[in-house]
Every structure is written in C-alpha cells, then in structure tokens.
C-alpha cells in the first residue's frame, strides 16, 4: 500500500510536472508564433516599403533623366541665342578687316603713284643737271661766246612716266 501510495504520488507529481511543462511550452509556442507573425508583418511591411522606395527611386531617376534632357535641350536652344551677339561681333570685325584691307590697297596704289612721280622727277632733275653741266663745260672752255651759244639748237626732252602695276 505504501508503494502504491508512493507510486500514485509520483504519478500525480509527474503528471503535474508534465502539465506545467506542457503549459509553459504551449505558452512559449504561442509567444513564438506571435513573434513569427509580427516578424512576417514587419517583413511584409519592409518589403512593401522597399518596393515603394524602389518604385519611387525609379520614378526619380526617370524624372532626373527628363530634367537632364530638358537642360540639354535648353542649352542647345540657348547656345545659338547666346552666340548671336558673338556672331554679330565677328561679322562686324570681318567687315572692319575688309574695309582696312581695301584702305591699305588704296594707300598702296597712292604710294606707288607718288613713287612713279618721284622717279620721273628724279629723271628730269638728272637730265637738267646733265644739261647744266654741259653748259658749264662750254662756259669754262671760254672758246664759245654768247652769240654762238644762242645759235646752238636747244634740245627738247619729253617725259613719259612708267606705270607700275600694284598687286594687292
């Protein structure tokens, strides 16, 4: 009877321990399941947030490419408008250069004309000098008198200037 009472008590204690242990395990399992559910919800929320951010990022990248394309297009449009004053300035400078070249060509022609006149005058001066030297030689010889000088034929010189062509 003592063994049976002891076995019944041990059986009762084992069942109590088993039930307490099972209750704690069920409690832990319920908490773990709740934690798993919360983790799944959080993972789902994170996944959703990740997709939203990825989608938003793609949208922002597309918007950035669009804005860059607009900037490039605007730069292409603004470049010719900005270069218009430069083109006007270049055109004005080219006109000034052309006018200066024409003026230089005109001055060169005038210079060559003056040089031709100078050369003609130099030739004429040399001819008169030669005549004067010839008459001085006649006076210095003393053999020729005044009446005989007047009887000498007077040479006539004709001057025809050369024309030089200018290359511009």
From TrEMBL:
Keywords: Coiled coil, Intermediate filament. PROSITE patterns: IF_ROD_1 (PS00226), IF_ROD_2 (PS51842). GO terms for molecular function: structural constituent of postsynaptic intermediate filament cytoskeleton. Residues 90-117 form a coiled coil. Residues 1-139 form the IF rod domain. One of its GO terms (biological process) is intermediate filament organization. Pfam families: Filament. GO terms for cellular component: cytoplasm; intermediate filament; postsynaptic intermediate filament cytoskeleton. Belongs to the intermediate filament family. PANTHER family: ALPHA-INTERNEXIN, GLIAL FIBRILLARY ACIDIC PROTEIN. This is AINX protein.
